[in-house]
């Protein structure tokens, strides 16, 4: 069959006048209704909502664990293939003459801050400490809980969840969006990434459904991140003396504390979103990167320096060697150990895979937006390898210092006993010996946490509006930015108040499942497009969109 030019026009109907001018009414209103009903249901019928969500969560974790494990493994493989595939590696996310809009420092700062930055302040300490006490190697009798022979295992499993798998899922989403938006001239929205599979039909109901699923997954995925961050933010504010009313007698954030924190964070993030990517988000990302480097430098110099070096380099080696087995292993069986392993995998690995999938439309579209002009190979190396290593560095010295303090008895169980969000405060307090220096460090961590939360939230609001506006990257109407800022805050508040962080986790896992199928199709679509574009170039057929808006469109067939 003769090769045809790729699809280079994908019209999406948007409102010409009125409140929704420039927005796809089908996508925007449907997504608002779904999110609105979730908030109303959670507030009006908290017990029923909690019960139903928990039941659906259990069903998904039981019946789709294998799906999530193999899907995430496939994303890692696809990224490796794209990086080494000569045809793919040299292609730009844009025209051959396009140059990157942002320098490397700002590019990496925005990429890291919006992607996983918030989680570092919670899980870089909490997760290695947890896996130091229990992980699949301990369950199988291959290592001893809370002993020296389990240190590298703690890092191997922590690196699994925050390393190449997580960032490969983001890279797949970002590559799919950037490739078709900036090379083909299609709208910068999720449906465009499926054009090699569905063609012009994506202008209609199929495309609307894809974008709706992406918006809902984005809101729930970012809500998950904000939920962890809000709890830690409240804990931090209480520690620096804002007020005892922020916490309950059980040491958890109070309802008033949660609402207070969300108003601050979402108010700041909405103002930042109104200023756009090139201003508010860029500067916030640079600020939190500088503060992150300061905090990390403090831990490297004054924390467990040599312990961290070993955790980083030897831990990375253990992780890379064990990666093929870890990403393909499905635990299950009838005996108690197999049951414990399956439970651990569902609570940790499968949960994380669902979280990263739910986060992928947001991070992927954002990565595409800031990566125009970069080659696919440069994008993969920048979006998978570099942020993964940064995560490993954080886990090595933040978590390593915590493990070392507990292992040597200096912490006396204080880090183990602290809440997940409070572990970093407990650790720095031990290192600095209390007093004014500990207070100042807590203030720095709270400020850093807030900048990360605001960066994630305002980026999410802009991304949701871009999807709703059929890929329009230009300024969005202020009421719509404000609406999604309020909606995101309401989702976090409602779910935290009815069931704590567990309720947000449950809603996120449910929302991620439909989008995981979309992501698989995105990977297939991307490989198909690159393969055919290589053949088209050899045949002298153009594979990039004309620079003029009124240039003729290609054939709707891929």
From TrEMBL:
The chain crosses the membrane at residues 20-44, 64-85, 105-126, 159-182, 209-234, 254-277, 289-309, 350-367, 379-397, 430-454, 481-501, 507-527. It is a multi-pass membrane protein. Keywords: Cell membrane, Membrane, Transmembrane, Transmembrane helix, Transport. It holds the Pfam family BCCT. Its main location: membrane. It comes from the Bacteria. It is found in: Cell membrane. The keyword Transmembrane helix applies. Belongs to the BCCT transporter (TC 2.A.15) family. This is BCCT family transporter. It comes from Pseudosulfitobacter koreensis.
